[in-house]
Design a protein that fits this description.
binds cytidine-5'-diphosphate, five-stranded parallel sheet, 9 helices, Rossmann fold, globular
Length: 231
């Protein structure tokens, strides 16, 4: 099956498995996968490592804004690929619960959103892209050809994220993981700039009881239907 050169936007709540299915769809159909959340996580990691976040005083916005002028966040493909900050691979560091606990306040800052949006547009300039996040179908690529909005039950989302963190050597409690997901959902949905919401023309996928394989087949069906692809 050959899919035309389109842009696919996958948005949704925290830990609904957006990146897992987007990566597989990208691999199967030769698309570039762009993880917008990884860039927000990269900005957050930078802020944490450089003392720009104080648990009492919050985020030093002036210093962060200045730093973004020269912050080089990007993705590399292939072996050893993933998210890079300058020459350093930060794929593991950006997924910790500590980064997760600050990423929503950081990504609610308008100049941070502008920075990430510009990076995403630069990275997607050659098209044929599947991108996941919170506002891809509403703000970043409102003209995306296919828009999907993912949802799943709180229990399954927390379970999946808990297992991921444990596999990476962290020792969180299930309660802490669920609390973080709910807090991020709340902040992401209620911020002023580009809040998380379903684009009117997005198809909703509830993957609570779906396997990853079923999700890929679902995407395939959606694309076949839209473009009349039979073979
Ligand atoms: O993997 P998970 O769904 O938990 O989160 P993520 O996609 O890595 O995104 C991390 C955080 O970045 C989200 O909770 C949002 O605060 C922010 N984000 C955003 O504001 N806009 C996007 N397009 C993507 C992520």
């Amino acid at each position: 099956m050959h899919i035309p050169d389109i842009i696919i936007a996958v948005d949704g709540y925290s830990a609904t498995g957006k990146s897992s299915v987007a990566k597989l769809v990208a691999k199967q159909f030769g698309f570039l996968y762009l993880d917008s959340g990884a860039l927000y996580r990269g900005v957050t990691l930078y802020a944490l490592e450089n003392g720009l976040i104080d648990p009492e005083k919050g985020i030093d916005e002036a210093a962060l804004q200045q730093a973004l002028g020269h912050l080089d966040l990007t993705f590399r493909a292939g072996d050893g690929g993933g998210t890079y900050m300058g020459g350093r691979r930060i794929e593991e560091e950006i997924r910790t619960l500590e980064v997760s606990s600050w990423v929503s306040p950081v990504s609610a800052i308008p100049f941070v959103r502008k920075y990430v949006d510009e990076r995403l547009h630069a990275l997607a300039r050659h098209g044929r892209v599947i991108m996941d996040g919170r506002d891809i179908g509403t703000t970043v690529f409102p003209d995306a050809d296919i828009k999907v909005f993912k949802v799943a039950s709180d229990e399954i989302r927390a379970k999946r994220r808990y297992n991921e963190l444990v596999a990476k050597g962290e020792a969180p409690t299930m309660e802490a993981v669920l609390k973080n997901l709910k807090e991020r959902d709340y902040i992401d949905s209620h911020r002023e700039t580009s809040p998380l919401r379903r684009a009117e023309d997005a198809f909703v996928m509830d993957d609570t009881d779906m396997t990853l394989h079923e999700e890929v087949v679902w995407f395939e069906g959606l694309i076949r239907g839209k473009y009349g692809i039979l073979e």
